[in-house]
Amino acid sequence: MQPNGKSFAWLSALGILIPCLTGGLLVAFHAPLQNEVKAEWFEGQKSFTQSIYHFASDDCRCSERLLSYLSGRSPKSSANEIVVYIGKRKPIHDLLESRGYEIRLEDSPASSGVEAAPWLLVRDASGRITYSGGYEPAPYWEARILFNVEHRTLQASLPSTGCVTSKALRAETLAYQLKDLLPRL
């Protein structure tokens, strides 16, 4: 079977369109971005040696993998672990709460101040932010980051290799511009 002009055009179009649609999901958003730390995230905090905030977002497979990982383990006994979720409540949140995590819901990326997710924020007992950035690849996730923070070893912020949550960053990323346009066509 010889390729004709139409099939070549379709294959060429798909060869360009597919990377454009998925490429933005693979872009590393370098920490600390401009994630706005909100005082209300820290209200009612229990006094532990540290507080660990896991930020996840609706419509993000990277965040789904993070939540799945967290649901497979209990929160650290020496820390207060909080999952801040941007979007609507899901059944996995009940599982996380039953395991001991605190769940906080944010209505929208604009109300949360988070530019990309998943994102990790760690505070020490004095309230100082000791880490703000992305996670390590599985299977380590935050384990080595927390080890370095606890032992006061220099821990550079890792890029957040997840999904864009803010409208401003979505507008700058071609993949999200196309993704936002396609449902309207």
What do you see in this structure?
- The protein has a domain at 49-172: Glutaredoxin (3-Layer(aba) Sandwich), CATH 3.40.30.
- The relative contact order is 0.20.
- The protein is of the alpha/beta class and 185 residues long.
- The protein has helices spanning 5-23, 61-71, 91-99, 109-112, 143-150, 167-172, 174-181; strands spanning 50-57, 79-86, 102-106, 116-117, 119-124, 129-133, 163-164.
- Strands 3-2-1-5-6 form a five-stranded mixed sheet. The chain has a two-stranded antiparallel ribbon with strand order 4-7.
- Helix 1 packs across helix 7 and helix 2 packs parallel to helix 3.
Fold-level CATH name of the domain at 49-172: Glutaredoxin
Provide the succession of SSEs: HEHEHEHEEEHEHH
CATH 4th-level superfamily of the domain at 49-172: Glutaredoxin
The top-level CATH class of the domain at 49-172 is Alpha Beta
Helix content range of the residues, please?
25-40%
Strand count, sense and barrel status of the largest sheet are: 5 strands, mixed
Architecture (CATH level 2) name of the domain at 49-172: 3-Layer(aba) Sandwich
Instruction: Please indicate the percent range of residues in DSSP E strands (runs of 2 or more).
Output: 15-25%
Name the structural class: alpha/beta
What is the radius of gyration? 19 Å
Topology:
Blueprint (H helix, E strand, L loop, with lengths): L4 H19 L26 E8 L3 H11 L7 E8 L4 H9 L2 E5 L2 H4 L3 E2 L1 E6 L4 E5 L9 H8 L12 E2 L2 H6 L1 H8 L4
Parallel strand pairs: 1-2, 2-3
Antiparallel strand pairs: 1-5, 4-7, 5-6
Helix pairs in contact: 1-7, 2-3
